[in-house]
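I am still getting used to backbone structure tokens and would like to learn alongside you. Please make up or recall a protein chain and show it to me in full. Would you write everything just below, so we can both look at the same thing?
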Amino acid sequence: MQNRKPNFIIKLSFTIFLLSQSFVAQADTDQLVMADSLFDLRSYKEAMSIYQENYANGIYSPAMLLKMAFIADGTNDRENAALYLGKYYDLNPDPQIITKIKALTAQPVLEGYEVSDGARFFLFLTENRELIVLILTGLLLVSLILVLVNTLKSKKSPVYWPSFFLIVCLFLANNFLEQSNFGLITNSPTLILSDPSGAGELIQRVEPGHRVKIKGSRDIWYEVEWKNSKAFIKKSNVTRL
């Protein structure tokens, strides 16, 4: 007689996980639907309040960020408009966004917006990290159950390498599929220095709008990547995306 316990355990674990996620997602969706309705009614202040609350909690979508940028631009809050567009660019690298940020910041040339094909693929993986981890966890569970069943039914040594491979993939997904930390220069002027000190050599003096990759933190300084080289900027001059 076929043992149905493994199938039941797998289905039950997936059902519990999906139900727990659906309750959270439904609450977030209801709020954003209300905000979108307010936006369509041109109640921008009320919509922005809901958007900002969700944004502060790490809940946002490309469409929401564009609406936030639109509202901020309409109130002459160009700094935040550029910030939301910069975050949008993190999720969806679109050259047209760079043009808009240039217009907002009155900068003819902006650094830090170049995205390679490899970076785009990595971005796709990071955006789907939860789904990837869920699939790998399910496959690992199935693999372990099969190992257990084969061990009980067969005298042959079970095959462990698929489970080991999935464990390695899960480790990599959990520890390395994280979006790079980027920041937007938001103060005028901002000094980019060679060392985390006011006595450091001046590399460049820039205006707001440039995007930098944040590599680390030292006291009041961010270590950043600037034109493929290491540099330092005061934290007060950078808003993290």
